[in-house]
Design goal:
heterodimer, A: 816 residues, alpha+beta, Immunoglobulin-like, 5 domains, four-stranded mixed sheet, 31 helices, 27 strands, B: 459 residues, alpha/beta, Alkaline Phosphatase, subunit A, eight-stranded mixed sheet, two-stranded antiparallel ribbon, 13 helices
Chain lengths: 816, 459
């Protein structure tokens, strides 16, 4: 309710009465209608408001009603409705009523300042029009170099500069006060003069009118007294629709002078998931598929998002009906989403599937034959939970997670030199082994100082030696957000402004490095002065962590201490979400937000309640990642089969099943070594060293690079890829990595043959070692046929081929 | 789940997600026909004109001296003009250095741009990036090689890959930054197919294309049969795009392994010895021949690296001192093999009626210092150098741009690397306004805003 407090009291009253009347409606009937937006207030005679009438069922907003809708205003002297648009007639209050068939809805409205003067403003009207029609877009005059000599700031973030470009440059031909209609600002976009960008709006359009009236009024520039945009609102904020439905969305802007304005016409729209919804430039949404989509409106650098849910038309009732009963918060949220979307969940995985999966996801290794047999033979009820507890204490857990964080933190000898690389790696490994809470882990990195050979964490600043890059990397790595766009202009897809970028960068302005005594040794320290200058203003900005508070004048600590305080504070909404999303994606294959380090308002999570819930859980458990992992592994959501069930094959964001994915390069290589019992040699490392134990990405390996290991050159999840390529397949099929292991004289096949193990048993062992399961009767039969027709001197070759077949199968190459 | 279009994105500047593009990008592997692919891409601005064209990019790693090759300055002082004389050519428009007699005979087929320049650091790697991707990598965003962008936008024509690098990707050249020979932000799925072998060696074969010697046809059959058995047991992969892609890749790899077309395309022993010798029995010569065979078989783009590194190899990098090359080393070793391979390629393409549909461009990362250094060589000079183009709609026999009297700076019509790459795209019929899916969903223009092709080159 904090937002309400900021509103004028009249507005609050109106809102309250509107809410009340809706509550009454909900109680009276299950299916009813609702008017949007709520609490309408028209200020000035030019102000209008597009109206929506929505069906409401079970308290959920449903489809938009456009036909047979009757609007009335009482008293009619205050306002009128034409074509679903409310227009003011005189100052006063009135009741707006909509009827559709047997349902009606009503709402109080207010008209103010109808007799007052109204002038279009440069800041709040001209700029949004230039943005909406693409004039200030990146491909047009908003490009860094402008276009054809006319340069605007991208989407109008620089009011002053744009005003000057419009009014002073080009010999003043862009605006001709005596004859507004001859201004290039009008003749070019209206197509009256040749314009490379084509015709953007018509002479009889509202945009033309706004621009020409603004010119006629003496083209007032941006003034300090201008009302400023405070927020925008999109209606409906949440709506349930079905494919084929169309929905108009309406955007309202709220200004600092208390005025609200329908800006739907000048907002820019985009869809975050075009396989579910599309949106056109007028804000008309079309539902094209099942699932959930989001439509984002952008207006004057403010952003609002509408969620559109299109439940699957599943015949089968969702497998999960007792959503609230689950003890695991993950299952409560996932199941609720599934039931909202009417998605059936796949059944629980088999023990064999689960056993293999949990080893690969948690430790990056395959279980041994004995472990598989023991687990499959165990009939205790809680054996999965016991297994999870034991895996989390294994040394391979440390290998695996050290590797993951080494990817994130770019551990590699190429840029650091070997001793520093080891120091960095060992530092990370030590934190993982001690299960250092994530907030502590990050604080130590962000505030690190001293010799990079003694304090491994300090290598973070050895790698990133410019305050801007430090700010970008810190944000990317620990908040999962990219602020890079805001370096040159306001972020077009986020709320971050150019000023915030330079406030953030200035927190790192005093981080310095100098050479130490040893070769490759660098000392990181905080200098006592230094500022980063924002090019737009030519001045440094007060060091401030994104939307946190600036450093108090009396805080004389290293600026990074202030940053770290803000960064890891439980009240920072970004920090917990970022790490939760990373960890979740490791186990579930798909992040709640995709890409996993692209968290932003315009890229909503597929299950916001789940992301928020897990972030809260992590804070409550003192940022104990192991505890978070335990929660995930014990959830039914994680333990589902990857086999599709009913309509859930069509979804890949809501966790109705486990999503199969290719093993990561290092894990696959280690798995080949494990099954064949032939280690992979790495130059400079002892025999038997596994790929996942390598501290460094700067190690020659055709296999690892062609299977997409991260180069650790930039902080981006996109560095690693699990996309299969033809070259990978050719290498598995014909290349030396696998074929050498299969032909090695003392490999697993040779050892078992030598020990007198019968061929069919060797095959069974292979299945257990590689796939964590026994061969099916059909497989066993077909393999036996093969063995029967093979002369004894060719048994070894035949077994090699069986090995090859298993090790190149999707079942082996994928975690599923 | 496949999302086929980015229809909602009517404006080019916003709203196209990387995911949308990736989904479309993988379609060809999952059975969407080329025609459909094209129809979809048409909405993103790729037009069908010159869809049939291919390109061969010869990258002269090491960087030839403009003065000793395609921009001789006979009237300049001795320490500038160097040891070689210009010779007349088949073109009335220009002369070239005497070290390329065979070039001279086909000079009516190619056109030289003598005013190429860049403003980045004078290390090899920067020029490699800019000349192949149109951009210098900054901010950690690796931009895709022109051939990878083409592959992304048009897919492959048949079982052969769309983009092949011969004989192998660029190795270290001192700068220790990427060379711009992969798909960059487009993703590994769009990386070029790399030969990784020297086609001039006896019994040359494509690595990994054939199984090891010990695995004969019978075992190969058995392996595939066995794999089918294992793969048919678990059915959990239907709805997994990457698993489908893996399957599609197995199919493509099998096709490649078993396709007689692919095997033949890579099999140089099918060429009469006379033809092979015409190209020269050198690595470069045989790469040129292989490039012709690959284009003939349907490959859209072939990149030939004349050299792999500048260290301990006789290359264009004529610093005059060890471990680099001397001017005479260039004259005696580099120029003859290069002159022979290139001229054979152009003549062969011409004879086969393929030149109109095959752009051959010869690029380099920079030029060399106008003044000969004390070691008798020339050092790095990105301020001015020459590149040249043939086929693919290029009007041969012309000169575009001009350097000053000592070849130090462009005197007329300066040409930047992004314009060279735009020229390649134009020849291939790609719309320069096309956007690729950049990192973090940022639409990434095919070429930077305002970049135009070198239109004078086209007839």
């Amino acid at each position: 309710m904090t937002r309400l407090q900021g509103m004028p009291s009249s507005l609050r009253r109106l809102l309250a009465s509107a809410i009340l009347s809706l509550l009454v409606q909900w109680e009276s009937q299950a299916a009813s209608v609702k008017i949007l937006p709520e609490a309408i207030q028209l200020t000035g005679k030019n102000s209008t408001q597009r109206l929506l009438l929505q069906e409401v069922e079970d308290h959920l907003v449903g489809r938009q009603l456009t036909q047979e809708v009757h609007w009335t205003v009482e008293p009619a002297s205050v306002a009128t409705v034409e074509n679903h648009r409310l227009r003011p007639l005189a100052n006063g209050r009135a009741v707006l009523r909509a009827s559709y068939q047997d349902s009606t809805a009503e709402m109080e409205i207010e008209v103010r300042a109808h007799d007052g003067n109204f002038e279009w403003s440069f800041r709040n009207h001209v700029q949004p029009i230039l943005a909406k029609f693409g004039c200030s877009a990146g491909a047009c005059h908003g490009a860094a170099a402008g276009k054809n000599g006319f340069k605007l700031s991208l989407r109008g973030y620089d009011d002053q500069g744009d005003f000057i470009a419009l009014t002073r440059h080009a010999l003043g031909r862009r605006i001709i006060p005596q004859e507004p209609g001859r201004s290039l600002l009008l003749t070019k976009p209206a197509g009256l003069l040749p314009h490379k960008g084509g015709k953007r709006f018509a002479v009889d359009s509202l945009e033309f009118e706004v621009l020409s009236q603004w010119i006629a009024n003496g083209f007032p520039g941006p003034a300090a007294s201008d009302a400023r945009i405070e927020r925008i609102e999109i209606n409906p904020g949440q709506v349930h629709l079905t494919p084929g439905d169309r929905q108009q969305v309406v955007v309202r802007a709220f200004f600092s002078d208390g005025r609200q304005e329908d800006v739907s016409q000048w907002a820019k729209f985009s869809s975050a998931n075009e396989s579910v919804v599309r949106v056109d430039e007028q804000g008309e949404v079309e539902v094209v598929g099942f699932g959930e989509g989001a439509v984002t409106a952008w207006y004057l650098s403010r952003i609002a998002t509408a969620t559109i849910t299109a439940p699957f038309l599943s015949e089968d009732p969702p497998a999960v009906t007792v959503a609230d009963a689950s003890p695991n918060l993950i299952d409560r949220q996932v199941n609720q989403k599934l039931s909202q979307l009417r998605l059936p969940a796949s059944p629980r995985s088999t023990d064999a599937q689960f056993f293999r999966r949990v080893h690969l996801d948690t430790l990056g290794i395959l279980p041994t034959l004995e472990e598989v047999k023991r687990f499959l033979g165990d009939d205790r009820e809680d054996k999965r939970a016991r297994l999870i507890d034991s895996l989390l204490e294994r040394p391979e857990y440390v290998d695996y997670w050290t590797y993951q964080w080494s990817d994130l933190l770019l551990v590699q000898s190429k840029n650091l030199g070997t001793p520093a690389m080891w120091s960095y790696y060992r530092w990370i490994r030590d934190q993982v082994a001690r299960n250092t809470p994530w907030d502590e882990f990050v604080r130590q990195i962000v505030t690190s100082k001293g010799s990079n050979l003694e304090n491994g964490a300090a290598n973070f600043y050895v790698l990133h030696d410019d305050p801007r890059i430090m700010a970008e990397t810190t944000t990317q790595a620990f908040l999962g957000m990219s602020i890079n766009c805001a370096k040159c202009h306001n972020h077009p897809l986020e709320k971050w402004t150019n000023t915030q970028y330079f406030q953030m960068a200035n927190l790192f302005a005093r981080v310095r490095t100098k050479n130490g005594a040893a070769n490759n040794e660098r000392i990181v320290f905080a200098a006592l002065n230094g500022e980063v200058v924002q090019p737009l203003t030519g001045k440094p900005q007060a060091p401030t962590p994104l939307d946190g508070a600036p450093i108090p004048a009396d805080d004389l600590r290293d600026r990074r201490e202030h940053l770290a305080d803000w960064l890891v504070a439980p009240s920072n909404p970004y920090f917990g979400r970022a790490i939760v999303n990373r960890v979740w994606a490791n186990f579930m294959g798909v992040g709640l937000v995709e890409d996993i380090d692209d968290l932003r308002v315009t890229n909503p999570a597929s299950n916001e309640a789940l992301l928020a819930g897990m972030a809260r859980y992590l804070v409550e458990h003192d940022y104990d990642l192991k505890q978070l992992i335990r929660l995930i592994l014990n959830s039914e959501a994680y333990q589902r089969s990857s086999q599709t069930s009913g309509m859930n094959q069509a979804e890949s964001r809501f966790y109705s099943r486990y999503y199969p994915r290719r093993l990561m390069a290092e894990v696959m290589l280690d798995a080949f070594s494990h099954v064949t019992n032939v280690a992979t040699p790495f130059q400079g490392y002892p025999a038997g060293w596994r790929a996942l134990q390598l501290p460094d990405s700067n190690i020659d390996s055709y296999f690892l690079s062609s299977f997409g290991r991260a180069n650790r050159a930039q902080t981006c999840a996109c560095e690693r890829t699990d996309e299969p390529s033809v070259a990978q397949v050719l290498h598995i099929a014909n290349g030396e990595t696998l074929n050498r292991k299969l032909a090695a004289p003392n490999n697993q096949i040779a050892q078992e043959l030598k020990a007198g193990v019968l061929p069919h048993q060797i095959i069974e062992n292979l299945y257990l070692r590689g796939l964590s399961r026994y061969p099916t009767p059909s497989e066993a039969r077909q393999m036996k046929l093969l063995l029967d027709e093979t002369p004894s001197e060719e048994i070894r070759a035949a077994l090699e081929d069986v090995y090859w077949a298993v090790l190149s199968s999707r079942e082996f190459l994928f975690n599923h | 789940m496949l999302d086929l279009t980015g229809q909602g994105s009517t404006t080019t500047c916003d709203g196209i997600t990387r995911r949308d593009f990736l989904q479309v990008g993988t379609l060809s592997a999952i059975g969407l026909s080329m025609a459909q692919h094209q129809a979809l891409l048409a909405t993103e601005g790729s037009d069908l004109e010159h869809e049939n064209r291919s390109a061969i990019m010869i990258f002269n790693l090491g960087a030839p001296s403009q003065l000793d090759t395609w921009d001789p300055k006979p009237d300049a002082p001795r320490e500038v003009r160097g040891p070689f004389k210009p010779i007349r050519t088949q073109s009335d428009e220009f002369e070239i250095s005497e070290i390329f007699p065979r070039h001279a005979k086909i000079a009516d087929q190619f056109s030289i741009v003598r005013s190429c320049y860049h403003t980045a650091a004078a290390v090899h790697d920067t020029g490699h990036q800019m000349m192949q991707t149109g951009r210098l990598f900054t901010g950690g965003i690796n931009t895709p090689h022109a051939g990878c962008a083409l592959e992304f936008l048009r897919g492959r024509r048949n079982e052969l890959p769309a983009h092949v690098i011969l004989p192998e990707p660029m190795g270290p050249t001192g700068g220790d930054i990427p060379h711009g020979q992969d798909a960059g932000f487009l993703g590994k799925a769009h990386d070029p197919f790399v030969l990784n072998a020297d086609p001039s060696v006896e019994h040359f074969e494509v690595p990994d294309l054939r199984p090891p010697e010990t695995i004969g046809e019978a075992r190969l059959q058995r392996r595939r049969r066995l794999r089918d058995i294992v793969d048919h047991t678990v059915k959990n992969f239907e709805a997994s795009p990457n698993a489908e892609l893996m399957d599609a890749n197995f199919a493509a790899a099998y096709r490649l392994m078993t396709s007689s077309k692919a095997r033949e395309a890579f099999d140089l022993s099918q060429e009469p010895l006379r033809v092979r010798e015409r190209y020269g029995m050198t690595r470069f010569g045989q790469c040129c021949l292989l490039a012709r065979r690959l284009v003939e078989a349907g490959v859209r783009f072939v990149t030939i690296n004349t050299f792999i590194t500048v260290f301990d190899e006789i290359t264009w990098d004529i610093h005059g001192s060890k471990p680099f090359t001397s001017i005479t080393g260039m004259r005696d070793i580099v120029a003859p093999m290069y002159d022979q391979g290139y001229s054979a390629l152009i003549e062969d393409l011409l004879d086969r009626g393929m030149l109109d549909d095959t752009l051959v461009c010869n690029l380099a990362e920079f030029g060399r210092t106008p003044k000969i250094n004390p070691a008798g060589g020339r050092d790095h000079w990105p301020q001015c150098w020459s590149v040249y183009f043939a086929g693919g709609g290029i009007q041969g026999g012309q000169v575009v741009g001009k350097s000053d009297e000592i070849g130090a700076y462009p005197a007329e019509r300066p040409v930047a690397p992004n314009e060279v790459v735009a020229t390649i795209y134009k020849s291939l019929g790609l719309d320069l306004e096309t956007h690729l899916p950049g990192p973090q969903s940022r639409p990434f223009p095919l070429v930077d805003f305002g970049t135009a092709p070198i239109n004078e080159l086209f007839g």
